[in-house]
């Protein structure tokens, strides 16, 4: 079967592409290549690549496609807040467009990348500090989580016997990718440890966060592609390895690094700042599909350090590794080119 990955050259997409290829799937990647094509450089000769904007997706992109995984769009709060209009267009309206095209083309299975940030209650709302499952009432306010929630509702309303949407609400991801990111908490800790010799949990690390390794995320997507309709159609699944306080996460990262000869300090910053805090249950995907994320923070950190060196991802200040920095860099370049025209 051929699987279309919308956003397939990104942080998660490049890992998912490799996992699909290893399992014998054909892969078609539809991506605007905001962050270049390094993520798929290793296997570009084994995939079909279409460059384009997900907001302008055409029906022919779905030719010979048996399932779609939508991991495209803006992928965190800073980028969403930087341009809320583009965030809504990509995360909500483009999702609706691609789903409508799938229905017309007879592509039944559609897996959507949502986010556990939909559950965010903040550190000040201690009465709501509970473990949320997929039945919890939510009312996200942030641009990113709101756009994901709106897309979820659109997809679920489209479900019928010929269209099978599946929603994965992922925890904060950690782990190495060929399209690396250093703006995710565990990855940031590793980057800071390697560059500064210490890591800094903000707000004292008091907040809770559900986390999951990127390889477990890829495996969960594949499971949602392969599962029987009656188990996943129109369903929402939280995807989390464990819930951690950020302070505990810092200790685990330090312990993992110490085991490979890297000694670092933890220097908490107790000043108040806007932070997210929430905990979620991963029992539904375990009970319904038998899926249990297995890759620990410690294992992932050790693997990350090894591969950062192996694949030369050590230019830690390169803005391409940080979504919001790269968006600003691209916008600045675009403004200059509009004045100068072509460079050569």
Query: What is the CATH topology classification name of the domain at 2-179 and 210-242 and 275-295?
Result: Rossmann fold
Report the span from N to C terminus.
43 Å
Radius of gyration: 20 Å
Q: What fraction of the residues are assigned to beta strands by DSSP?
A: 15-25%
Taking pLDDT < 50 over at least 5 consecutive residues as the criterion, the unreliable ranges are: none
CATH architectural name of the domain at 2-179 and 210-242 and 275-295 = 3-Layer(aba) Sandwich
What does this entry look like structurally?
The longest helix has 22 residues, at 84-105. With 344 residues, this protein is an alpha/beta fold. 44% of the residues are buried. α1 (11-22) crosses α6 (214-226) and α3 runs parallel beside α4. The strands form four sheets. A seven-stranded parallel beta sheet has the order 3-2-1-4-5-7-11, sandwiched between helices. The protein has helices at 11-22, 77-82, 84-105, 143-157, 185-196, 214-226, 229-232, 246-258, 283-289, 297-310, 323-340, and strands at residues 2-6, 26-31, 48-51, 67-70, 109-115, 131-132, 164-170, 172-174, 198-199, 208-213, 235-239, 242-245, 265-266, 279-280. The model has no long low-confidence stretch (mean pLDDT 94). Helices cover 40% and strands 17% of the residues. It has a domain at 2-179 and 210-242 and 275-295: NAD(P)-binding Rossmann-like Domain (Rossmann fold, 3-Layer(aba) Sandwich), CATH 3.40.50.
């Amino acid at each position: 079967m051929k699987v279309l990955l919308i956003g397939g050259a990104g942080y998660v997409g490049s890992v998912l592409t490799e996992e699909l290829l290893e399992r014998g799937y054909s892969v078609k990647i539809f991506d605007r290549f905001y962050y270049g094509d390094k993520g798929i450089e290793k296997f570009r000769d084994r995939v079909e690549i279409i460059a384009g904007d997900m907001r302008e997706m055409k029906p022919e992109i779905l030719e010979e496609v048996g399932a779609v995984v939508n991991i495209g769009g803006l992928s965190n709060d800073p980028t969403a807040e930087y341009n809320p209009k583009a965030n809504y267009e990509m995360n909500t309206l483009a999702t609706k467009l691609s789903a409508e095209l799938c229905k017309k083309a007879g592509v039944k299975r559609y897996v959507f990348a949502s986010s556990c940030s939909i559950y965010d209650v903040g550190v000040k709302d201690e009465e709501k500090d509970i473990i949320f499952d997929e039945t919890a009432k939510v009312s996200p306010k942030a641009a990113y989580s709101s756009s994901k929630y709106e897309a979820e509702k659109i997809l679920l309303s489209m479900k019928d016997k010929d269209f099978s949407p599946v929603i994965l609400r992922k925890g904060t991801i950690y782990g190495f990718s060929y399209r690396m990111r250093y703006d995710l908490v565990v990855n940031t800790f590793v980057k800071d440890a390697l560059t500064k010799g210490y890591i800094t949990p903000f707000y004292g690390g008091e907040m809770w966060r559900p986390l999951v390794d990127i390889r477990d995320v890829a495996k969960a997507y594949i499971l949602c592609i392969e599962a029987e309709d009656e188990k996943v159609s129109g369903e929402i699944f939280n995807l989390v390895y464990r819930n951690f306080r950020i302070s505990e996460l810092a200790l685990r990262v330090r312990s993992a690094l110490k085991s490979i000869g890297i000694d670092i300090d933890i220097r908490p910053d107790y000043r108040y700042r806007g932070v997210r805090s929430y905990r979620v249950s991963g029992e539904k995907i375990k009970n319904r599909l038998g899926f249990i994320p297995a890759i620990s923070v410690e294992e992932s950190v050790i693997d990350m350090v090894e591969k950062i060196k192996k694949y030369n991802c050590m230019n830690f200040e390169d803005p391409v590794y940080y979504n919001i920095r790269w968006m600003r860099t691209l916008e600045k370049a675009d403004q200059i080119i509009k004045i100068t025209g072509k460079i050569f």
